[in-house]
Design brief:
With 443 residues, the protein is an alpha/beta fold. It contains 13 helices and 19 strands. The radius of gyration is 22 Å and the shape is globular. FE3-S4 cluster binds next to α1 and α6.
């Protein structure tokens, strides 16, 4: 059987990106090889997101684009997976009749079997059931040649039910992978040349909560810290209500744990936090930031923020800005509240008008830009450790990499340094990156 070609289009978060990597690995066993040209594909997979309405709209317009391809080559098969597929299921098949398969977030490992049920003249196939144990979590996605970083899923699902969020509805309840399985995967990644792992989960701080006697999250980090060859450990996302003193200690004790934490706060007002069902107050959050900075003064802290949650008043919004002024995040991902099907916030009273949401987002983003610049400028003159990821997008004579605090640094250097850790003195700071000068000797 000749090789068949697979094109995967991924929307959404890092977890979805990794799901696509795993799917490519499973389909490679079935004889599919990847292509980056949808026109020449035998199978197109769209891995979707539904976190905000805009994300869902992007998926629909992409599906529209693939309809034309299908009419030109009827042999082409189109599969849709991920969170929007989980959410819309049959409805997706009705609006996109050119789709052959819709599979849910727990069905990754079944995709080859489901595809075999897609007969040329049969109807489309739909499978969105949840499973008690998600098989795909253990699928090894071999890194691409030359890759230095890899994602490792440590848990799936979420039990938190924040009032605005679809994730618990679309990814199911929290499931942690066994620690030994995760460690075996990381050892094998290290043997294939991976230097940096990013541990993925919606709420990594509660890793292991359902498996008494097993490792908890700090325990897992300490074990990964012992794996030879892994120079950097990162993780995302960490829920503020479950940030333990033991995890904070890890930043000091585990050399390979990078000094960066993404700690989504979502709002700065206690009234809004309570309505969001976040489980902490602004005071508790400020205290966590203080404890992190006491233990690890150089830690880089990034966050997510939502503006215009139902009932958010001007005074609540000012509390958000005030929290930002107090903390001065290294970076912030901010979003206008988007009403989502099936969530508790959908039926909440006092919606905030679209113009008000837009205006608040603009104000908030301008403030954050000034904080990002200020935090980036603190690096000027410092010598930072950089893991070199590749050639810079803007100039072929420049390389690009990240500091341990997750800031992008561009610097002049030779390609042979890709994949190595070097030291750079930071010379200039911009909004989205830093410019460095390579220090000799290189390593
Ligand atoms: N599990 C992570 C985040 C998952 S979603 C966590 O708990 O933080 C990523 C971000 O999208 C969230 O942090 C939130 O800021 C944003 N988000 C989620 N639902 C949203 C909605 N309905 N409207 C606007 N932003 C939303
Ligand atoms: Fe969504 Fe909240 Fe779970 Fe994050 S913790 S995935 S925001 S429900
Ligand atoms: Fe989107 Fe699902 Fe991730 S809704 S953000 S792809 S968990």
């Amino acid at each position: 059987m000749g090789k068949r070609r697979l094109y995967i289009r991924t929307f959404g978060c890092q977890m979805n990106v990794h799901d696509s990597e795993q799917l490519a690995a499973i389909l490679a066993r079935e004889g599919y090889e990847g292509t980056d040209r949808p026109e020449e594909a035998d199978l197109i997979v769209v891995n979707t997101c539904s976190i905000r309405e805009k994300a869902a709209q992007k998926v629909y317009s992409e599906l529209g684009r693939f309809r034309r391809l299908k009419s030109r080559s009827p042999g082409l098969r189109i599969a849709v997976g991920g969170c929007l597929a989980q959410q819309r299921g049959r409805e997706l098949l009705a609006v996109a009749p050119h789709v052959d398969l819709v599979f849910g977030t727990h069905q990754l490992a079944s995709v080859p079997k489901l595809l075999s049920h897609c007969e040329p003249d049969g109807g489309p196939v739909l499978e969105t059931a949840f499973c008690d144990r998600i098989e795909s979590l253990a699928i090894l996605a071999p890194p691409l040649p030359g890759a230095v970083s890899a994602y490792v899923t440590i848990m799936q699902g979420c039990d938190n039910f924040c009032a605005y969020c679809v994730v618990p509805h679309l990814r199911g309840r929290e499931q942690s992978r066994p620690g030994q399985e995760i460690l075996a995967e990381i050892r094998s990644l290290a043997e294939s040349g991976i230097r940096e792992v990013t541990l993925l989960g919606q709420n990594v701080n509660s890793y292991g909560a359902g498996t008494p006697g097993g490792l908890d999250f700090p325990g897992l980090i300490r074990e990964i810290g012992q794996v030879e060859g892994i120079e950097r450990i990162r993780f995302t996302t960490s829920h503020p209500k479950d940030l333990s003193a033991d995890l904070i200690r890890c930043f000091r004790e585990v050399d390979s744990l990078c000094e960066h934490i993404h700690l989504p706060v979502q709002a700065g007002s206690n009234r809004v936090l309570a309505r969001m069902n976040r489980g902490y107050t602004r005071e508790a959050y400020l205290d966590s930031v203080q404890r992190l900075r006491n233990d690890c003064p150089d830690i880089s802290i990034t966050s997510d923020m939502i503006v215009g949650f139902p009932g958010e008043t001007e005074a609540d919004f000012r509390e958000t800005l005030d929290l930002m002024e107090k903390i001065r995040f290294d970076n912030l991902f901010s979003f206008k509240y988007s009403p989502r099907e099936g969530t508790a916030a959908l039926t909440m009273k006092e919606p905030v008008a679209e113009e008000v949401r837009s205006e608040r987002l603009k104000i908030l983003q301008a403030l954050q830009d000034s904080h990002t610049q200020e935090r980036n400028r603190l690096s000027i003159g410092r010598v930072e450790e950089i893991l070199v990821e590749g050639v810079s997008r803007t100039s072929s004579r420049h390389l690009t990499g990240r500091t341990r605090g997750n800031k992008i640094v561009n610097f002049a250097g030779e390609e042979r340094l890709i994949g190595r850790t070097v030291r750079c003195r930071i010379a200039q700071a911009f909004l989205h990156s830093l410019r460095g000068e390579l220090q000799l000797p290189e390593a």
